[in-house]
């Protein structure tokens, strides 16, 4: 087993969105986070990320919890639902607004594209335009604001680029110029929905999470979350981003590109397939409990380093 470091005890989590059932890709993330918690003698939590109710499938939350239980991945504490935590997000946004780091914005996608074109910039990032800072100093009232954004600069004047560095336990040293790569990002959308970045930071802190294990496609979110942790005075976390499971078209396997729900008729075989995607060897175990115990030992032997946490 890995030795515990000084500091807060390990607390990890798996945070699925109930937009459908778990599939092979989401199981890889779930299994990795469970194994990492068990290998460090920590606690493993499940959080249902249902803040965007319009995308959620009725009953999918309970179905996901049932899938995890069938696979032997049972949380150590009762699950929580983001849709029940709105006051926490509102309080965090108010702190950022009061500190001058968050501001109201009334831009549309069309106006953002026009502003970028006027600056001879047409760069898109993962399908999203990098915000040009149009509303930074307009001081819109809450009634005028369509959305709320966070300054991506190192200073309140908006003149100094902000570069963030962190150590991913699998990917190694990471670095991003948040100002250039992302721009001032949304905290609350024009339709009133809370942005994922704010929700996840507030939830992780409120639940005492110390370690985040999730898919590599979410690694790009890390600098935005680090910045929010800094500005809200929250603890920093350790991050480990797992390999992605790809579909037949070479893209990340997801509900959007036809990923099938997990086959739970043979739960042990389903777990073994996920373990192979994580690079674990063939493991012994006639029962699922025996196999999971062997998987924990195999995960611990990989030597994925956990750097010390900084408050």
Automatic annotation (TrEMBL):
It holds the Pfam family tRNA-synt_1c. Belongs to the class-I aminoacyl-tRNA synthetase family. GluQ subfamily. ATP binds at residue 255. It comes from the Bacteria. L-glutamate binds at residues 13-17, 49, 196, 214. A motif ('HIGH' region) lies at residues 16-26. It is an enzyme of class 6 (ligase). GO terms for molecular function: ligase activity. This is Glutamyl-Q tRNA(Asp) synthetase. A motif ('KMSKS' region) lies at residues 252-256. The keyword Kinase does not apply. Zn(2+) binds at residues 105, 107, 131, 135.
